[in-house]
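User: Show me a protein chain along with its predicted structure.
Assistant: Here is one chain, sequence first, then structure tokens.
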Amino acid sequence: MQYMMFVATDPEPDTDVEDNVEEWVRENDASGVRVRGERLRPASEAKTLRLRGGELMVTDGPFTEAKEWIAGYDILECESLEHAIDVASRHPMARYGRIEVRAFWPFDGSDEGE
């Protein structure tokens, strides 16, 4: 099953640990767990859009006023949520930021899983 791993910043990181993201990427690419992943440009370069009443509204930056922002993502291929959590827990941003893990929800027209 595939999982999306959102990598977010955190205003209160654990900075006592060395950042080894390249090692994490190499290890999970080699094992086939990491399907793909990329960093994202800063939130200051984001655009948020809404379509209301036929009118497109585009604003600068993320919609929320949070101090945290999504810094990147990885797509993981894992046998279970527990496995995905284990893989994500070893990512440096689990210490420096926050990691959110969610299973992909195939669009098949059903609401199963809600």
